[in-house]
Here is the input.
Amino acid sequence: MAYSDTRRRMFAESIDAIKEKGLYKEKRFIWSPQDAEIEVEYPEGASHEKVLNFCANNYLGLSSHPEVIKAAHDGLEERGYGMSSVRFICGTQDIHRDLQDKVSAFLGMEDTLLFPSCMDANAGVFEAILEAEDVIIADRLIHASLVDGIRLCSAEYDTFKHMDMKHLRKKLELHQDKRHRLIVTDGVFSMDGDLCPLDEMCDLAEEYDAMILVDDSHASGFIGKTGRGVHEHFGIMDKVDLITTTFGKALGGASGGCVSGRKELVELCRQKARPYLFSNSLSPVIVAATIRVIDILSKTTERRDKLEENTKRFRKGITEAGLNVREGVTPIVPVMLYNAKLANDMSRDMYAEGIYVIGFFFPVVPAGAARIRVQLSAAHENEHIDKCVAAFKKVGEKYGILGLDKKGIVEKYGM
Here is the structure.
């Protein structure tokens, strides 16, 4: 057989090497709905523990909201479980159109097209709208799904230093001979939680006749005064050409995504984007639930406002506790540890304290930038946040990192 015992042993040895370094990602199973408190089996085969979840994308606490669940049930009963078809054949129901219209209105865009996920939206949008005589100029830290989509496109690909507008200007000047110039950025960068300077990008786009695409997956629903996203935060809702985003984070937490923007660009995606043309339609269950989510968020900013207060409380507490965190205003709060094993060990100890967080290290983040990424939710109460801060302080004291900056942590543990 091609898969011989020798080959099996070689792969097994690679896995053993990961374990020996303390970097093995153990299986974890959740036995409850996604919420602020969850029931977890970790490691596999262990007894279940109730812990506080501080690493979900459930920013608005809507994953298990009773109104959203009811809408999903109603969608199942009224429109069925699945479409068994792609959109352009017989996979488009009236509720798919309704959701597209609601998303367009919510984001302040001209038109919207649904995809099975934001990763699919990012995989399809570039090839649909750009050709070889065009150029894409992207922030160097854009999400992997954007990079994958760009690779499928024949347009030239260039980058600028992370959030460096002087460097972006140079790149725009360099590519003035191209037919179309498309600036690509995340709205909120998922690992660091930093907000892109979208207002400055739009000024440069106007000056150099470029378009802008923003992946707002970690912003839609809660960034901006009414949660419309980073373009609302900066007061430039009419200046962004394309937004890709997900329904799998703040907007319900299930799956699905979209491209939203100028009607001609969205129509090109409808005609040419391969993930749209060759993937089954979004399930009616998810469509119905996401419509309800948009309705909730369009009526009140209560959850968005609570998330903002929770974020302020946690950032203040974790900084005062002496942990090394990246500054910012978003509910993504990286506790920087720089050493992969340290991040893994601390996340395991946090679990023993009743806090569910995960260590991130290469290749998820750059080598030497290991961290525990904390994500706040509107489902968290003050006592949850205070317990999490106390646990970080206790575990941080165990490892002797309280009050240490990057240099101090690296000197103690290495990178």
